[in-house]
Amino acid sequence: MGRKTPLFSLHQELNARIVDFGGWDMPVQYGSQIGEHHAVRRGAGVFDVSHMCVIDLEGARARAFLERLIANDVGKLKVPGKALYSCLLQEDGGILDDLIVYYLSESFFRVVVNAGTRDKDLAWIRRHAQAFGVTVTERADLAMLAVQGPEARAKAAQLLPPAGVAAALALVPFSAAAVGNWFVARTGYTGEDGFEIMMPAADAVPAWRSLNSLGVASCGLGARDTLRLEAGMNLYGNDMDASTQPYESGLAWTVALERPRDFIGRAALEPLARSGSPRKLVGLLLTDRGVLRSHQQVLVPGVGEGEITSGTFSPTLERSIALARVPAGTQAVVQVDIRGKLLNARVVKPPFVRFGRALITLS
Amino acid sequence: MSQLPQDLKYTKSHEWVRTRPDGTLEIGITDHAQHALGDLVFVEVPEGGRSVTAGDACAVVESVKAASDVYAPVSGEVLEGNGQLAAAPETVNTDAYGAGWLYRLRPAAGALAAAALLSAADYQKVLDAEGG
Lengths: 363, 132
Prior knowledge:
The structure holds 2 protein chains of 2 kinds.
Chain A: H1 8-13, E1 17-21, E2 24-29, H2 33-42, E3 45-48, E4 53-58, H3 62-69, E5 83-89, E6 95-105, E7 108-113, H4 118-129, E8 135-138, E9 142-148, H5 152-157, H6 162-169, E10 176-179, E11 182-185, E12 194-200, H7 204-213, E13 217-218, H8 221-230, H9 266-275, E14 279-286, E15 297-300, E16 304-314, E17 319-327, E18 333-338, E19 341-348, E20 353-354, E21 357-358
Parallel strand pairs in A: 3-13
Antiparallel strand pairs in A: 1-2, 3-9, 4-7, 4-8, 5-6, 6-7, 9-12, 10-11, 11-12, 14-17, 14-19, 15-16, 15-18, 16-17, 18-19, 20-21
Helix pairs in contact in A: 2-8
Chain B: E1 9-10, E2 15-19, E3 25-29, H1 31-37, E4 40-44, E5 51-52, E6 57-63, E7 67-71, E8 76-81, H2 91-94, E9 103-107, H3 111-114, H4 120-130
Antiparallel strand pairs in B: 1-2, 2-3, 3-9, 4-6, 5-8, 6-7, 8-9
């Protein structure tokens, strides 16, 4: 028996298939996983992401703490409400987790980290916060719903108090605002527009039912995974972990070395930034028939070998796609060992799909 | 709940076996299996002429989530794989016991009698024991 979110009983009522995810009993699908995927690409879907860990950082030196803690530059957060994606690094540059940090005020930042890394992250953050006098509060009292899809914001806005609707709909991408006692962020993990809404746990079930009645489909972690992979977004534990660094994980854009800022992991990354990482994370499109899966071996003729870190059948493209860690010299075409057969795949630049449309050519 | 045609035989690994009028066998996966797997997106069936031994992995069904082997319930020679599934793997979801058959097999002499196949009632007990 794993941990349960405030929506667990509702998932059971909706006949969800429940699986363990990072120690949590979570819905993987309610009906057809492909149907849920298309609902998000074409209309709107709602995901229970309450298993993710919301952490509030409060104190006069909260910004200084984050400058030390994360690899991206919290100095980019100039307007209250803005959000930033970053890695949390070890001293050796290995990735402890990826997270989103929201700037609420100079003395108040909110961080959302992954469910499976919750305890490790909290211990790490608390340890490093001490020197800055920053208070670290795990917000286990909050539920989080991700409402995603081209119709998601308009549908979700109907749940908000009338006074808050305009503010929520005015949010620019990657920003957030408090609306009553809800925290509404224009963020997501699907490659579609939408909101992620943090709310008191007791509000979660009525909010979900209201969304369903507005035509927003209940969606499980299965569809969430195919959507994020089409969107070219990494999954912690699959595409990167403590044994890999950002430059070999497609995350160079999140490492900010421009300012002389002493963040944890910087000393290990600077030489790599100069010399280049020996490996890189690329997108693959299978040109033969089959399905790419994590841990399949990738053969790069004349260059070396790599490994698929996430692979699936893409419901939008109706082809198999993957992220793979391969030698830096990998060019246009690779082979993948699938049950002893070598199948051809083309190297492509993620994302594969954004806002409902293919961003790569299939031929 | 899963539907279980009474005229078929079954395996603990969730294959079904139909004996055709000419004595050859048609083999697929059960409705329970397709439901557990979810939306199928790729099916690899054996080619005609291949010899298989009972228990061999000889077909693969892949859903969005994962790949699963399908085992030969009976030893024999594959006559043909279901070529329609390459373009329409979802047929296994929608018609597991009909158009979603995976391959046809000519059983080796005595192989059918030797195979440990289950009646519909006994397969139902397997499902009950699995909580299905």
